[in-house]
Design goal:
The structure is a single chain. By secondary structure, this protein is mostly helical. It has one domain. Helix 1 packs antiparallel against helix 2, helix 1 packs parallel to helix 3 and helix 3 packs antiparallel against helix 4. It is globular, with a radius of gyration of 16 Å.
C-alpha cells in the first residue's frame, strides 16, 4: 500500500491533479503506518519490503527527474496500474491451495 501511495501521489503531482493527489496522500500515510506496525510485530526480515519501497520510490523519482512531465506522468501511471494489479491479484496466487484444502486459511 505504501508503494501504491508513493506512485499515485507522484502521478497526482505530475498531472497537477488534486483529485488524485489529495486522496492518495492518505494511502501513503496509512501505508507507512501499516508498514511500521507490521515491522514491529513480525519475525520476518523487513529487508525485502524496504527494498521494494526504496525501489518504487527511486523509479518514480527517476521518471519525474529524467522525462518530460507529461511522459513521466504517463509512465508513473503505468507503474501505478501494474502495482495495483499485483496488490489486487496477490491473493489469487493461493486459490489452488484454498480449493485443495477447502479452507481460506492461506488467504
Amino acid at each position: 500500500m505504501m508503494c501504491n501511495g508513493i506512485i499515485w501521489v507522484a502521478y497526482g503531482a505530475l498531472r497537477n491533479d488534486m483529485s488524485v493527489l489529495v486522496p492518495n496522500i492518505t494511502s501513503l500515510v496509512m501505508g507507512t503506518y501499516y508498514t511500521r506496525t507490521f515491522a514491529q510485530h513480525t519475525d520476518q526480515s523487513m529487508t525485502p519490503h524496504y527494498a521494494a519501497i526504496v525501489g518504487v520510490a527511486a523509479a518514480t523519482a527517476g521518471l519525474a527527474a529524467t522525462l518530460p512531465t507529461t511522459l513521466a506522468a504517463d509512465y508513473t501511471g503505468y507503474l501505478g496500474m501494474a502495482i495495483a494489479a499485483i496488490m489486487v491479484g496477490g491473493p489469487m496466487a493461493t486459490v489452488q491451495t484454498v480449493l485443495k484444502e477447502k479452507s481460506t486459511r492461506s488467504l
